[in-house]
Each structure stands twice: as structure tokens, then as C-alpha cells.
Specification:
- The protein is mainly alpha-helical.
- The chain has 2 helices and 2 strands.
- The relative contact order is 0.10.
- It binds zinc ion.
């Protein structure tokens, strides 16, 4: 067993895997990393209109705010600025 630091949340965790060392403490942190990578990849491939860009930026701003507010905003309505 090895003590590791999660690459997403920064918390310590016990790595009990014998073969491939784990980088994340949980499935949630692993998913976050996966989705972030997919997001980064696809955002470069889409060609949003100026109006759609505004909505995407709004979403990203909302994501950032989730961290500071720590409220569950799943299902929240898209509010235009
Ligand atoms: Zn974690």
C-alpha cells in the first residue's frame, strides 16, 4: 500500500493497486479528469457562432463558480447575462 496525492482534488489516498499506480482517489476524480480532457479536445473542434460562444462562456463561468459556492447546480436553468 502506498500513500498518494490525488491529481484532481489534492487529497491523500491509499493506493492498494499492485500493478498500475492509481492517480485519482475516486471514480469521481477519475471521471472529472476524463471529462475535462474530452471537453478541452472538443472545444477546439466545434465552430460555435458568436451567440453560442456566449452561452459556452457562461457555462464555463458557472462551472468555476460551483467550486466556490459548493452548491449543487445540476438542473439549473441557463440564465443569459
Ligand atoms: Zn480525488
Amino acid at each position: 500500500m502506498t500513500n498518494r496525492v490525488c491529481m484532481v482534488c489534492g487529497n491523500d489516498f491509499e493506493d492498494e493497486s499492485r500493478f498500475k499506480p492509481r492517480q485519482y482517489c475516486s471514480d469521481n476524480c477519475s471521471d472529472f479528469s476524463k471529462f475535462k480532457e474530452a471537453f478541452e479536445k472538443t472545444i477546439l473542434l466545434i465552430e460555435p457562432t458568436p451567440e453560442a460562444k456566449k452561452l459556452i462562456r457562461g457555462d464555463m463561468f458557472r462551472f468555476a463558480n460551483i467550486l466556490s459556492k459548493s452548491t449543487n447546480t445540476i438542473g439549473a436553468q441557463n440564465v443569459s447575462n
